Structures are given as structure tokens and as C-alpha cells.
Known about the structure:
The structure is a homodimer.
Chain A: E1 3-8, H1 12-23, H2 25-32, E2 36-42, E3 58-59, H3 62-66, E4 72-75, H4 83-92, E5 96-99, H5 102-116, E6 122-123, H6 134-141, E7 147-153, H7 156-168, H8 172-181, H9 190-193, H10 196-210, E8 220-221, H11 229-237, E9 241-251, E10 254-264, E11 277-284, E12 288-295, H12 299-316
Parallel strand pairs in A: 1-2, 1-4, 2-3, 4-5, 5-6, 8-10
Antiparallel strand pairs in A: 7-9, 7-11, 9-10, 11-12
Helix pairs in contact in A: 1-12, 4-5, 5-10, 7-8
Amino acid sequence: MTIKAAILGFGTVGQGVYQILQTKRDHLTKLAGAPIELCGILVENLSKERELPYSVFVTDQYEQILAQQPDVIFEAIVGEEPGFSYLTKAIDQHIHVITANKVMFANHGNHLLTQAGERVGIGYEATTAAGTPILGTITRLLQVNSITKVEAILNGTSNYILSSIQSEGRSFQDALEEAQKRGFAEADPTNDIKGYDAFYKLMILSQLIYRKQPSWETVLCEGIDQITADQFINAQQQGSKIRHIASIEVVNGKLNASVKPQVLPPSHGLYPVDGVDNAIHLIGDLVGPLTLRGAGAGQLPTASAMVEDFLYILQSYPVKQHI
Amino acid sequence: MTIKAAILGFGTVGQGVYQILQTKRDHLTKLAGAPIELCGILVENLSKERELPYSVFVTDQYEQILAQQPDVIFEAIVGEEPGFSYLTKAIDQHIHVITANKVMFANHGNHLLTQAGERVGIGYEATTAAGTPILGTITRLLQVNSITKVEAILNGTSNYILSSIQSEGRSFQDALEEAQKRGFAEADPTNDIKGYDAFYKLMILSQLIYRKQPSWETVLCEGIDQITADQFINAQQQGSKIRHIASIEVVNGKLNASVKPQVLPPSHGLYPVDGVDNAIHLIGDLVGPLTLRGAGAGQLPTASAMVEDFLYILQSYPVKQHI
């Protein structure tokens, strides 16, 4: 018996998954109880040169991936489509899916989860804070606890820029350029510095914790690009830091969510978080305050989350038998 | 069908478990798929007054607890015995066990885990850092990752004393008395300030991560009571903090463990941890550095870990049917 896996999208994250499946082959076989067979990789452009063994099936046709009858699909494509349509088709065929696609999942996660029901596993740890196991902590380790409040730093780019303005006295423009030079910000940084990226991740967290999202248009979403020099100076003089915080809590039975810069005093659980890290500070009604901090991006941390989800799904759901 | 649970020891932690089983009754029934029936509480002194409904069976005879045929036993007794003997007998009868007893588990955990094999679940999250889900994060959320290094603040009393010496300029004696007054240190604080408590927890972590412990006599175990005023002043002048760190890593195939005060620079993942909190900073070979911080003691956080373990065991192992 083997477990058949396919990868959709072979950019940074898809290649990370491929790499882990290779380097951890023996360990994964032992944990999963059967060897993992990579039955196909879907790419956009077949003519692009890739360092892959000839034995790996590479195609630009999704139907050819489905024809391989994979047990599990890793989706590492960017944007709502074609990711959403691909995963819908996969779930229809009882294929477990694991995604790193936050824009798609913030928009369509509820649809996919409903479609999957109890038969099909959906892994989406990688959509939020890369390998930092925020979602697993909440859903698997804190089942009895009720999460009364969440505050989180979910955008590494914004956090890097804010850290560098406050600790090195850089201007916003200067800090942004430095982040771009070091690969922490994209050429078009709009999604990060306007807060949209953190917003998507917060909506995924909301769905996970409260099984619903607030209406998107009611959520205040401010980025870090409107903070004035005076605001930075004031925070510094108070011994505080400005951080870009995504928060959600239930107030009088209503979800109260926002994404915006906030002044954090040294006593705040997220105050120490500098650089490109992500972190979540939550309150459980039994366990009390809990903070989890780790990498918010990167090839291996993101692929790590996907392969950890993969293993959990193999352990929790039946897979077909390919003798 | 009901699930029968018993509590051994009715001090702070045992009462916390009782309280959660009551207040979360409906939620637990839903999660476990059947109502939980508290079939007995074992106490040392039957004549002590307790606020319990008459319907709860209270006894000072362990055999009477076993006669109830519980599915799961919560052990919240202090010290190696009688806890170890009780749990051995329970496992013999295929009863799942959940313990908060770190001295017992550091000494006999391996024996109990071997005895339990695959048939019986053993929950011990509460032995290390109370409700902060360190053990679950490592065993359930980071299965594919190899943990290459762990550094942790595992004794809240020591951390409180060190924080208060460094931030408020107290003397050691003064800080210890303040900790005792606030209930963060016991009348006899030896186990905490000599490092023994952190040592036991580190041995439990070692067993969990590396499936073995170093020989106890080879592990350097220093407490916080020998730190000189000069050492505090030096650390402060460098912008660093002295923290009591339990660490373990594999160097050249050998487990390298120590428990001792260390000078942490601001860049260290454990530098921000002040007060009675516990925290763990680990390196996963895929996910990179990860820090988890939360309460290291307390009635509800400790009982929270036990009830979360309870639920996980119910979901992972078959329980007998009591119609």
C-alpha cells in the first residue's frame, strides 16, 4: 500500500513541500504507516526548467492530476482561482486537501469545510503564520477551553518595518525599501502595508474559533502606512511600541474584529515581538493567557505546516488502498 | 452510555478538575460523545469537610475507586508514592490515566508508558508548565519536525524572584518573601530555588522528545540561590537578564542537558518572559524557532491541561461501554 500525494503549484512553497517529502521520506513512511508516493506536480508553465527527477510526473493539466487518483492534494497556488475550483473538484472525489492559499481560504474556506463534511480532511495551518501551529493549538490542544479573545501579529512584513522604524529610527520609506531588499516585502507591498494580508488571516481565525466571520465591511482594516512620525515618537517616549494588531473577541454576543496599528505597553504579551516573526496572544477561559511566536513566512516553515497537516489527516481519516 | 472518571487527590488541582467537569459538563458531553460520570474521589482524610454534593462517592480506599470500574483516572497527588502504585494498578486494569504529578512522572514515566503500550492512554501535559500545551505541541503538532534544541523557563517561582530582583532591585531574600506572601512560593521553597522542580520537568521533556533521559547525575542542576549581586549588576549593565534556564539538545549523538541561571541578551526568545510565567523556546528542523508562553502554575491552568488530555484520550482510545 502507498499513499498518493500531488502538489499544485511549484513555486517557493510547493518546492518546499517536495523537499520535505524527499528528505523526510523514511520518517514519514514510519509515521504514516505506508510510503508516500508523489503522483504528480501541477505547474503553470511546462517549458520552465526544473530540477526534478524524470520519474516525477509534471503536467499543466489539472485533469491529469485527478486521473492519478491522489489521496491528498497540496495546494500552493496564489489567489482565489484556480485554487478554489481545483479544491472543490478534489473534495468531490473524496481527496483530502491541504492549502497555503490564504486569500482563497478566507473567501471560500467555509464553503470547502462544509463541502468536505466529515469524510474529507482539510488542512489550512499554513494559511496563517506559516509553520507556527496557531490553528492546531486552538482546534486540537484547546478543545475544552473557550477562546475569549485573540490578538495577533499576522503580517511579518509590517512587523519588520515597524520594528526597524522604532529600533533604528528609519523613515517608513527607508524601512520598506530595506524590507524589500532583504526579501521580507514584495515589489508591490500593498497587501502587507495596507493590512489586507493580516485581515484575511484574521477572518480564517474567526471562522476557526467562532465558526463564523463578521461581515467583512464592518471590520476596521488599517495598515501601517498612515502612522505619523509624532505617533512613533509618542510611543517611544512612553516606553511603548506601535505594532500592527489583528484582534477579535465576542462582545455582547457579537464578533468584534479589527486590524490596525496599536500602541502596546511593555506588559502586553505581543510587545516583545520584533522582526518578521508572527505571534498570537489568546485568552482561554481555563488556561488563561497564552502566547505563541514563530516564523510568519518562509519556504520550510510554510511547507512544514502543510506536511504536519498531511500527517494529521492521514492519522485521522481513512485513505484509499493502492496496493 | 457514560464515561466514568475518578479523581485521586482532592487538593487544589483535584478540585480544579472537579470544577471543570461540572462547569463544562455540556460542552464535554458534546465533545466526548457521551456524558461524563464522576464515579469517585479518593481523599487522604475522610473527616475533612468538603463542599461536595451527597451524590459524589468519596473514599479513602483506592480499591473502592477501582471497584467503580472507571474508564479514566485523574491523578493529582503529590510525590512518588502512592501515585506510582495507584497508576500501575489502574493501567493493569486498562484504565486510562492522567497525571499532574511531575516528581512521580520524571522518575517512573517511562515505566508507565511502557506498561500502557498502545492500549491505554497516559496524559501528562499538566506535569510541565501547567496548561501551556508544550507537550501536545511537540508530540501532536510537530510530528514531522525533529526538535534539535529546547531551552525553557519551567519554574515560575524562580522566574518571579529573578524578575523582581532585576526590575525592582530587591534582594534575593526580600524577593523570596514577597513571592511567598503572594502565594508564588511555598513555605519551604527548596525544590524551586535549588532547581529541582525545573530538573524534573526537563527530564519529562527529554523522555518525550528523545525517548530517553540523560543519567540524572550527569546533568548540571544549579538553582537561583547562589547568584551574586555583582552578577545581577553585570547583566543589567549589558542590557541582559538573568533567567533560570532548563536546556537540552543532542550534541554528537549525546544528550546534553543542564538546569542553571543564564544571562540572556534581548535577542533571546526567552528574554521577555517576566513574572510567574513558564515558556519554552524550541528549534524544529523545518519550522525553525518557536516560543510558547503561558501560566506555569495555578488551579485552573493545571486542571485545564488534565481535562484537555482527558478529551484527547477519549477521542484516541476506545473506552468500555457502561450502558
